[in-house]
From TrEMBL:
Main location group: cytoplasm
Keyword Magnesium among UniProt keywords: no
Designated name of the protein: Peroxiredoxin-like 2A
Keyword terms, alphabetized: Cytoplasm, Redox-active center
SUPFAM superfamilies: Thioredoxin-like (SSF52833)
GO cellular component: cytoplasm
Pfam families, per the entry: AhpC-TSA_2 (PF13911)
Organism field: Trapa natans (Water chestnut)
UniProt cross-references to Gene3D superfamilies, sorted A to Z: Glutaredoxin (3.40.30.10)
Amino acid sequence: MASFSMEEFVGDGCLKKLLPRLLEEGWDDVPTLKLMNSDDMATLGMTQQQKDSLRIRSYLHDRALMQYADKLDASGKGLPELLNLGSVDLFSRFGMKRGHIARFLDRTGPASNEPHSKLLVSARRGPSPWRTSSTHSRSLESFSSINKVSSFASRSSPPARISSSYFDRSLEQSLAEIKIKEDYVFKGILAAGPVEPRACGCVQPPQVTEKVAPYYAIENISVKKLMSEYKIGMEWNVKAKTATVKASELWRDKPAVLLCMRRPGCIMCRAEAHQLYSRKPIFDALGVQLFAILHEHIESEVKNFWPRYWGGVVLLDRGMEFFKALGGGKLMKDSFISGFLLNPIARANYRRAKAVGVDQSFKGEGEIKGGLFIVGSGKSGIAYQFIERNFGDWAPIAEVIEICTKLQIQRHSHGGTKSSRSSNEFD
């Protein structure tokens, strides 16, 4: 899996000497750097070799093939030339494995190299296995999708579409109208993955809550910052003493996405964190913060997780209160045998994560399930809650972006947010 460390991204090639300038100009994290267009490159005075290097490394990063970056970079060829090479050349000259060759030559795969800042979320038609419920009394027929997404970046390139995948489901059955008025509190949306019989129906899956967690269940949770948002040159500082803060401080001025992780060493958790953080420029443009929340602190596991799979803020919820809120007041747990070996969806989730080159470790508690919250700014409440029903279930990224986009549109329509200070203390 491609790392979010800037030093690892630029490697030992011709981009290395540009690091101080990139930091000065604000290109200080990998997702943002990959958005750089021709005009930006010209402004920085990049040579043709450096431009080619950035395009090659961005393409490889999207496909989790960064192990070949230095060799391809040193070849002196541009990305179009490399893509026109045959399998024999890629193997003999760069030592590329057969499966990696197929991934490298696949220009239309889900890991598209198109800029994320112009992604237009499409509401696909058709049935959806994702269960959604709302505390509103309205039926699913009243749910509607947003077909119009605000332009949340100033790039001039044409909009791109998120490629069709398992998670890009119809939003018509998963988005409720959320209208912000003065002192309005979100009712929220509750979502979870599909469920299938285990062991021919002999084993019943654990029940999940049918209600969105109340806001009071999360606002007073105490969290501790383990890692800040990654920037070039940051040193490992997990031992630095940081104050414990009330969770409501995280989203006091800006909405927040809270990724509650079962275990940072888990291959499926790492893959989910990586695919979410890779959309960081979208969330930045929408004014939404990203936080990863752990329920236990194993220093080696945090160090192996950050910033390789997640370059954002990492928080510790030692009391597991966010995880209890996801489960309706109690922890959601499942065993390895019934929750994984006998669960075809969990095994499919594992294969999906394995296919994109994620490493794993087995340290730590792995039976406590996680999920994701989207919380509006101030006391507006929980806008979205996703439950990890099966090990490795991900919140559909299309839903997450749609909810955050809608939050942005509504905040702007009400003249922005009242802010006396930013949440930079958590960056």
